[in-house]
Amino acid sequence: MVNKPTRRTDDIIGKDLWNIQLDEQGRLKHFLTIEGLGTNILNQILDTAESFAGVNESVKKVPLLRGKTIVNLFFEASTRTRTTFELAAKRLSADVLNMNISASATSKGETLLDTLRNLEAMQTDMFVVRHADSGTAHFIANHVAPHIRVLNAGDGRHAHPTQAMLDMFTIRRNKGADFGKLRVAIVGDIMHSRVARSQIHALNTLNTGEVRVVGPKTLIPKDIESMGVSVFHDLENGIKDADVVIMLRLQKERMTGASLPSEQEYYQLYGLTEERFKLAKPDAIVMHPGPINRGVEIESSVADGDHSVILDQVTYGIAVRMAVMSMTLGGNIKMQDQEKKQ
Amino acid sequence: MKNILIKNARIIDPKNNFDETTDLYIRDQKVAAVGSAPEKFTADEVIDASNLWLIPGIVDISARLREPGLEQKANIETETLAAASAGITTLCVPPDTDPVIDEPAVVELILRKAKLAKKTHVYTMGALTAGLKGEHLSEMASLKRAGCVGVSNARNAINNPLILRRAFEYASTHNITVFIEAQDEHLSENGCAHEGAIASRLGLNAIPYAAETAPIAQILEMIRDTDIRIHFGRLSCARSIELINDAKANGLKVTADVAAHQLHLTDMDISSFNSLYHVIPPLRSQRDMNALRHGLAEGIINCICSDHQPHEPDAKLAPYPATEPGISSIETLLPLTLKLVENGSLELNTAIASLTCNPAKILGLNAGHLSVGQFANLCLIDPQKEWVFSIDEMLSHGKNTPFSGWNFKGKVIQTIIKGNTVFKK
To answer: Does A149 touch chain B (CB under 8 A)?
Structure first.
């Protein structure tokens, strides 16, 4: 009989999969998804980010994570997100290692685990992970050595929690901390967007008055209402009286498949033009996770206009990522506490 | 050749409408008598089966043993022992081995290995198309002659309806049952989860109901005027049961099965990306699960199978969408079925029939019952035994089960095949 001893079920699936984000004291340990995190944690991230926002303008660098090694583990191409993670880590004085691994080399889970084991052996402290498969960040968090922290920089269509938090930060800076009076519309390809899913969780955790998603039926996932959103299929009604309009990037490959007939028709129906934007509240802001397809989902004059906060989002991205890195890796230290010590 | 007397067992034999506490006599590997002793019978062995159930050996309509071709996952020797320990005395392997069961040599290889293992009887399902590629008909008549009990394209698509229709006609010519696992490859588009709130939240590629129901409806329309037996395996949708019920009412020769795990799990179970729940067809909603249970109780679904798919650990050690689907489920087939009896959703007699005479009839086998003169394939169950299923005690080479830690009531304590004890607790 060749019944070799094999790993226990727990080793395969991991422990309590949602709560692995928090330690015994309820503090943030990994940052994998917004789902399951309370208002207190989200506000803590925003407050900590606020304290770092000043760092970026004047001091540029703090020694919070000196001696720590952070690995950017990107299985999907990305310049912008990786760069902001890298800058955030460097401003916290951590050492950064960038690994760009093409998905083809790691199409098997075995190789992915092997990659992790190798990096662990190099005495690293944090993995920032981007991967094309939903659930990858959870999988990695379940299999890394206990001292290693995992930040999700985007997994498949599932989650992109730091992007969602920088969006919340942007909204809070522009509209104040009371999300209850806000109406937020997320427009475009909800189906394939990890950003949208994380934004929806974050907005609802922060008790946003109304969250809407807008798009054709081919780009709205089934039963999305269960996440706490109302669904609109035409843009005019969807953004009417909105305080915040978030436009999503439409991937080129969606326009050639069965989801949409053409760029032109998409722009005619869902492109955010100046004319249409007038339907939102007079002081509404426009957001976009980037990179923008001008003339596909948004008119240039809107993207560059007075109501656009798109470049703020990029700037805030660094402070928010610094906040999450310091909370997971360095304990709950705010910038002010650091200054007191010095 | 031992003469065996099994005393005082509650013998449940749904085929013969028999359910009494009495004795069963085995002589020359066969059931010699039930009730009173046959002439000139002296027992070489007496088994006291007081407080035990005696049922016909279980017939599993779909269990993958992974041999030939995928021996890193399991092999015929390990899996037929695991099957015997779970009360299964007959099982049928789908044709998607490597090489595919599309020529008699592969059938002979599997049957020879199974015979050497001397455990559970193994039958093979032949490929419906050569190499399961969906392009040319397989040599069905030769496969039947070599011992195949039916033909199937397993989960491989036949995208050209004309080829499917010709395959049906050809199978019908040779009086061969066609076994279908309905799933449209385009509608399911690399999906790994039921289309609904959970998949939307987790961002997993979704498989809509139509991926199963559309091909079933198409096939039912296609066979209206052909005299053919079709068996739809591994149903997952409530709507599929309605379609099959209508077809039966219209006189079509249609039967159906469901995998035991579909009667206990729903898509809620995948909500933490637990790859052990990654199965195809996907776990669907509570409503579907209830409809499957109801369909079984009503006889619209004829039998329960294990859909056994043992894997090596690495197959499940990856992000959920990148894992291989399937559960190592041969050892939970009976426990999960008895659980349905325990919670009141299935009559005991229906449950046993769904595991024995019903699948045997669909496979065209004279098995799954205890008539006098039959080979003595049976198992003894302690119905009161409460136990916890654990991967540490699994005999299957694949430990990929989400049921480790589940409490069950009723356990196989002895399995007899052709009068020989092949497993004893």
So the answer is: no
